[in-house]
Amino acid sequence: MSPLHLAAALLIVAMWGLNFTVIRFGLDEFTPFAFATWRFLLGALPALFIPKPTVPWSVLAGIGGLMFGGQFVFLFFAMQAGLPPGLTSVLVQLQGPLTVVLAALLLREHATRGQWLGLAIAVAGVVLLAQSISGDTPLLALGLALMSALTWALGNLVFRSARGVSMFAVTVWASVLPPIPLALASLLLDGPAALAAPILAPTWRGWFVLFYTVVPVMWLGYLIWGTLLRTYPAAKVGPVSLLVPCAALAISGYLTGEPLDGLRLLGVAVVLGGVALGVYASARRLR
């Protein structure tokens, strides 16, 4: 990569790594459904100025419902249930090997031994993590994080139908639909006051969280990521995402005091090792 693009890749790592801790703070301000509603409502604003990409609405709905709505609602509830930001960032990275497996099961694509082995190692890491968190965090939280990874992986399969168009435009237009069902769910489960909290009871921290998760993380992040994917082979850009949970763990440890030692550290290392093996196997397949 050129120095400029390398700096942009590291900026993404830092922004997306910090995002998990920012989300943790945001859940002190908003309910998960209200948080998700406002995140995607604000994220869809550029659709007023950017033409719709040449992608069917069904594809945009699949991306918005799975990769966006499903992924983040499960992630928000996992963190609300007590799963710390750094650990959450590690578990959602399972979307990589899960995408390969789902493509093999649902689309009859061939998965290599290395990809299957990577998934098996990552699953072993999840078992270790389950043993490490059972005393202080509900296992339900871990299950919700795995559901976040699963819906992200399913969304990846749909996203592949949107190749050849601007990732930023797809991101914006795929954000148009999720706020509707998310807002209805928030109204039914949380009430009107919770949904309208950013307007009726605004706080500087709440609006900072919404600003950060939309402007740097969504708009700037996907704009840079799309530029890197158009400039370099996916096999070269993909491994950059493995640095995100490393950054998230370091940032969460510093800002929230999230512990990372003993069995939990081993579990994190095994999960990321399995994901890395899957990424490496996928990169070799693309050569």
UniProtKB/TrEMBL annotation:
<feature type="transmembrane region" description="Helical">
    <location>
        <begin position="57"/>
        <end position="78"/>
    </location>
</feature>
<feature type="transmembrane region" description="Helical">
    <location>
        <begin position="30"/>
        <end position="50"/>
    </location>
</feature>
<feature type="transmembrane region" description="Helical">
    <location>
        <begin position="207"/>
        <end position="225"/>
    </location>
</feature>
<feature type="domain" description="EamA">
    <location>
        <begin position="141"/>
        <end position="277"/>
    </location>
</feature>
<feature type="transmembrane region" description="Helical">
    <location>
        <begin position="139"/>
        <end position="159"/>
    </location>
</feature>
<keyword id="KW-0472">Membrane</keyword>
<keyword id="KW-1133">Transmembrane helix</keyword>
<feature type="domain" description="EamA">
    <location>
        <begin position="8"/>
        <end position="129"/>
    </location>
</feature>
<feature type="transmembrane region" description="Helical">
    <location>
        <begin position="90"/>
        <end position="107"/>
    </location>
</feature>
<feature type="transmembrane region" description="Helical">
    <location>
        <begin position="166"/>
        <end position="187"/>
    </location>
</feature>
<keyword id="KW-0812">Transmembrane</keyword>
<feature type="transmembrane region" description="Helical">
    <location>
        <begin position="237"/>
        <end position="257"/>
    </location>
</feature>
<dbReference type="InterPro" id="IPR000620">
    <property type="entry name" value="EamA_dom"/>
</dbReference>
<dbReference type="InterPro" id="IPR037185">
    <property type="entry name" value="EmrE-like"/>
</dbReference>
<feature type="transmembrane region" description="Helical">
    <location>
        <begin position="114"/>
        <end position="133"/>
    </location>
</feature>
<protein>
    <submittedName>
        <fullName>EamA family transporter</fullName>
    </submittedName>
</protein>
<dbReference type="InterPro" id="IPR050638">
    <property type="entry name" value="AA-Vitamin_Transporters"/>
</dbReference>
<dbReference type="Pfam" id="PF00892">
    <property type="entry name" value="EamA"/>
</dbReference>
<feature type="transmembrane region" description="Helical">
    <location>
        <begin position="263"/>
        <end position="283"/>
    </location>
</feature>
